[in-house]
Design brief:
single chain, Zincin-like, alpha/beta, 8 helices, 2 domains, elongated, 3-stranded mixed beta sheet
Length: 235
């Protein structure tokens, strides 16, 4: 019978010590403390303090196969030690996260543990529910179910809007509720986020497509698309 690789019998600490030696072969590995935490997302981090590297991993990954933990070890320690990591490890890790059962688990955990700030649809100038229903009838025949709608805490210029599928919520930047923001700018951003509701993220292997071909084509139906994009550039 073939002898199985020792990789499948390693503890998490042993995996990280081995990966550390692969990244820094001339340095003796420090102590490692690996713990699984109840994060709201599949987030993980590694920190060096007083001769010990503490690794905190989302408990969503606790049951992952050893090769996935090895890939994550290369990613985390590569970032911590500022060492290049082979793209194959990032691909292996993304492939696991993109599995349908894992994505379902991630969404469920986000719903249960995550906190979503929703200010409500009424802003200083605009009401998002009113704007949503107008766009709904104009572009979606009034058939789109209304998600949670709210304004962001701060007037962000980098994130004008986003759709959160875990909480079924669209959040729009307060910047678009200011006196300087034309209604067309708000309508376009809200319409774009409604398209994310209509065309969910697609996963193909290790790749996640957020702006799918169907979404980009549907966006062209927006009246005043070119003008709206120019307005947003000026904002």
């Amino acid at each position: 019978m073939p002898v199985e690789s020792a990789l499948f019998f390693e503890t998490p600490e042993e995996i990280y010590a081995r990966v550390f030696s692969a990244l820094k072969p001339r340095t003796s590995p420090p102590r490692f403390a690996v713990e699984f935490c109840r994060f709201a997302n599949p987030d993980s981090l590694a920190r060096l303090s007083e001769g010990c590297i503490t690794v905190r991993i989302s408990d969503l990954l606790e049951g992952a196969p050893s090769p996935v933990h090895e890939a994550l070890a290369y990613i985390l320690l590569g970032k911590l030690l500022r060492r290049p990591v082979a793209p194959a490890y990032a691909r292996r890790y993304r492939l696991y996260l993109n599995r349908r059962d894992i994505r379902r688990s991630v969404d469920l955990v986000r719903q249960i543990r995550g906190r979503k700030f929703i200010s409500g649809p009424q802003g200083t100038r605009f009401n998002l529910e009113t704007a949503f229903e107008e766009l709904n009838f104009q572009y979606f025949h009034g058939l789109m179910a209304r998600p949670l709608l709210g304004w962001s805490r701060r007037p962000s210029r980098t994130t004008l809007g986003h759709y959160d599928p875990s909480h079924n919520a669209i959040v729009i930047s307060k910047l678009l509720d200011s006196p300087l923001a034309p209604p067309l700018a708000l309508e376009y951003v809200l319409f774009h986020e409604m398209l994310h509701l209509r065309y969910p993220v697609q996963t193909r292997g290790a790749r996640r497509s957020i702006h799918t071909r169907e979404l980009r084509e549907a966006e062209r139906a927006f009246a005043g698309l070119k003008e709206a994009k120019e307005l947003l550039k000026r904002l």
